[in-house]
Amino acid sequence: MTSETYRAEPAYLDYNATTPMRPEALSATCEALRAVGNASSSHHQGRDAASRVDRARRQLAALLNCSPGELIFTSGATEANNLALQATYAHTGLIITSAVEHPAVLETVRALTGDAPDTLVILPVDGDGQLNEDAFRASVEGKGVALVTIMLANNETGVITDLVPVIEAAHDAGALVHTDATQYVGRLPLDLGHLDVDLLSLSAHKFGGPQGVGALFIRRSTPLPQRPLVFGGGHERGWRAGTLNVPGIVGLGAAAEAASRQLDDEASRVTKLRDLLEGEVLARLPGSYINGASTPRLPGVTSVTFPGAPADAILASMPEVAASDGSACSAGAPSPSHVLLAMGLSREDADSTVRLSTGYATTEQEIHRGVDAIVRAVTHVRAVMGPAESA
Ligand code: PMP
Predict the structure, then answer these.
(1) Which atom of ligand 1 is nearest to the CA of 327?
(2) What is the CATH number of the domain that holds 364?
(3) Is the Cβ–Cβ distance between 384 and 19 less than 8 Å?
(4) What is the pLDDT of residues 31-81, one digit of tens each?
(5) Is residue 132 included in any domain, yes or no?
(6) Is 329 among the residues known to form the active site?
(7) Ligand 1: residue whose CA is nearest its atom 10
């Protein structure tokens, strides 16, 4: 590590962990924090809070092309996933999912089903992180009312699931479909008029909103008996009790509106930055490779493996770059990424993988600074590890 490295400007390349708040969301949240009023109260201030929440619900509904009445505000995608999965499992008794889901899905389905093979099917993925369509069909056909829960975009690799055939096969078989769209919402256009999922989860801080607020979409036509996780005063039409987080919800709505205005421009700008980053890294660090490179991915996500250089050592060698080894979402988990192992990486390569994720506010200068630091760090770690390790 050189002193020059420590003086370098920071580069934030961890948008999949959390994004900076969009200016529109920040000012709307602050403004709502200054106001007083419980959205359940009938006096003027309460009605004012309720109308801010209504507006946010409409803003989010516009981003997703759904009806505001199909949205339930939660504390984030973890809660939205838990709510969706426990309510549907109580109704279906069988869950079909994939090996690369976020822990907010995998841990929940394991807890609900007790991991019993007659109630939980976890499907493998191929080397690109995609489900095999025939294997999926075979798992769902003839099972009656099941719940299929498959993420729309993977948090570690950015790989986008081709969900349309999954939804068709699931619905043909009489199953319900939930998707964890946390990393996709606000990054690429999503039209619930076309994407016929029954339930969808999201989190505001992945698209420029505040942390600690999210939503669950439940399609109005979905035959799902109400089954809250949190009981109390009947908020959110009985689905989620508790005083609404008005400032958070307002920030979520403002972020949704800002994202929907800029979605196409941001997606193409961020894709160009991602391509620049990947081109530079691959050219300057021979032997490195991108996971999921040959399949559709989110614009700003790069999962890159540097054989012979453990990710924790790389990250420790470049404190000026905010990036993540595997998934920052599995707080402090020492085990190798289940996503990369499911895609067929060796344990060593999974442990030598860094996730670089960019977004709406990333600049080209940040990419150049980030690449320079990564090249220095990987070269340094490979030199320290020696030729035997880097073979
Ligand atoms: N699902 C996915 C795919 C995620 O990336 C995350 C956040 N890392 C979550 C769910 C959970 O979101 P939150 O922590 O905001 O509840």
Answers:
(1) 8
(2) 3.90.1150.10
(3) no
(4) 999 999 999 999 999 999 999 999 999 999 999 999 999 999 999 999 999
(5) yes
(6) yes
(7) 77
